[in-house]
Amino acid sequence: MVLTSTYTCATPTTATSNIITVQINSVLVPSVGIVANPSGAICAGTNVTFTASPTNGGTTPAYQWTVNGGNVGGNSATYSSTTLANGDVVAVTLTSSEGCANPTTATSNTITTTVNPVLVPSVTIADNPTGQLCGGIPITFTATPVNPGNNPTYQWQVNGTNVGASAPTYTYNSPADNDVVTVILTSNATCVNPATATSNSITLDILPAVVPTISFTANQAMPVCDNAAITYTATITGGGANPAYQWYVNGVAAPGATTPTFNNPATNNDVITVELTSDAQCANPTTATSVPFTVQAQPFLTPAVSIVSNTTGTICAGQSVTFTATPTNGGANPSYQWYVDGTAVGTNSDTYITTSILPGEVVECVMTSNYPCLITPTANSNLITLQINPPITVSITAVPDVICAYETAVLTATAQGGDGGPYNYSWDNGDSGSTILVSPDFTQGYTVTATDQCGSTPATATSTITVKITPVADFSFAPDSGLTTLDDIYFNNNSFNAAWWTWYFGDGDVLDTTDMPSHNYTFPNVYEVKLVVTSADGCEDSTTVKINIRDESLFYIPNAFTPDANGLNELFRVYTWNIDVPIELVIYDRLGVEVYNSTTDNPNGGVYWTGQKHNQGDLLPDGVYVYYLYINAPYLDKMQRLTRGTVTLIR
User: C-alpha distances in angstroms, 102 versus 30, 98, 108, 167, 489?
Assistant: First the structure.
């Protein structure tokens, strides 16, 4: 607005006011709608929450809930209840807090509840067949449910363990005594609570199945003799109070054989069986048949025995003979008694071995059979008589039977008897043949053993060769070394058992028959001295010894020489006196190399060294050389080293 002032001093005289903008609200019509959670049909006791959704209610709307027109609940946009009944009508009245509300209240839509009652399921079971049953009979159990719904499930249990399928029936094919059968029903009916129910339990009363059996024994062990009386006795199990029996022979029922025992004569290969019919409760099957029994019957027999020997005709005295018995109908273990000329011999064996059968003796065997069905138990064999060669004898002829030591005697053995020869002769000294030569040095017996080709008992004989007292020749001499033609040699007679002595000195001198002679040799040489001694019994012995007689001889070997061409002491040589046997001189240098050998380096003879290697060419260097001096003594049959030393070569 504009104000014009009338104040005298007003300046300006007009003023404009502030501006006010006026807001004009339109008139609002409140409304309200409700929903239920859960919606639709419910079970009795279900908590249902109703929620109001206002329109134009303002910031602080007020609510009044009603059930069937009666106020319920509080001033809240929700209302909950667990006590609703089927057909109850729920609504709410909204009072809007809007300033321009017109009208100020609004009533919601109504919800009519559908409430179903709560159902409790249950189930019972029955068995068919029922009561006390025999084992092995299947039982079918049937469930009768209450409030099962249109698609219930079933869980059958035996002793708390799940079995079977989800079905209102269960067939138990192998029931056992005291098994407990139940079923658990799970209902799918609306408003069921609880959802599962367990049935009554059925405890089974199962009698064990009885399987009848039958067996039997015979009162005699097999085999038996033909037509022997045999009693068979049956043993049963599960037969009940009044079992029935039927015996069969070869599959044919024996007339009147309806008791636990059955008497029947033995016939070989008869087959015996018995059948049991049981009246025991729960017997399954009701009949049982025994294992077939085959009769072993043997005929009555007569035993026999025959004997043979491993040799026929004539045998050697002392030869081993084996008699063998062959039984007929002897049984599994027959016994034997051998006889020679009626006298019991040998052991209980089917063979008899002897080396003492005499000419004309009769051998027989009596066999006792252990076959069970005998007409007579014993049998006598045929008789055997053998022809026997006479025993071997042997004798020895000795020519001569008295000798001196080492002389030869001829021993000849002569055998007779046995198979008549030819004979084999074996001597205890290892020789063989009927005649041997022996040369003992002491009195000795010789034993020969004669055998024939037949194998008769060998015969032996002994002959003694007497050896007369025999002397032993032995001597020594002195001196026994360094002998020369100047020595008198004294001979010491060491012989024994000698009565006479004869000495041969080997130089053609006269014989000497004294006990302890001496002798002097005129010429150097190797002489064979022989002593022949004779005992008082005329036996001789001799011994020979070689004696080397040398002439008195000397040699000299210098220890240095000077091959310097001055004509003095030019050669190294050995100087000898009265030595006429070949001399060999060998020289070696300090390295052991041979530089001179008189047998090869002096083809024209002479034992000397020039100081040259093998006495040829240039002189060897000064120094010490080693020499070996040998004497080639034919009478010693060898090379004998005399000495060894050194020589110094000086120029």
Answer: 7, 9, 16, 66, 194
pLDDT of residue 633: 56
> How far apart (Å, rounded) are the C-alpha atoms in residues 456 and 221?
53
Q: How far apart are CA 294 and CA 218, in angstroms?
A: 11
Cα–Cα distances in angstroms (integers) from residue 310 to residues 202, 307, 354, 358, 363, in the given order: 90, 10, 12, 16, 13
Rounded distance, CA 228 to CA 243, Å?
Answer: 29
Please give the Cα distance from 463 to 448 (Å, whole number).
Answer: 9
- DSSP characters for 169-212? EEEESS--TT-EEEEEEE---TTBSSSEEE---EE-EEEPPB--
pTM, to two decimals: 0.38
Amino acid at 157: Q
* Cβ burial, residue 114 (10 Å; 0-12/13-18/19+): exposed
Q: How far apart are CA 551 and CA 627, in angstroms?
A: 25
Q: Mind listing the pLDDT tens digit for each residue in 554-592?
A: 567 889 999 988 888 999 988 776 566 667 889 999 898
The closest of 300, 250, 244 to 272, measured between CA atoms, is 250
Spatial contact of 311 and 384, defined as CB atoms under 8 Å apart = no
Answer yes or no: are the C-beta atoms of 143 and 202 closer than 8 Å.
Answer: no
Q: What share of the chain is helix, strand, coil (3-state, %, to 5)?
A: 0, 50, 50
Cis peptide before 117 (omega within 30 of 0): no
Contacts of 198 (CB under 8 A, 6+ apart): 123, 182, 183, 184, 185
**C-alpha to C-alpha distance for 462 and 623, rounded to whole angstroms:** 80
Beta strand pairing status for 115-116 and 42-43? Answer: parallel
317 burial (CB, 10 Å; 0-12 / 13-18 / 19+) is buried
- In which residue are the tokens 């908590």 written? 47
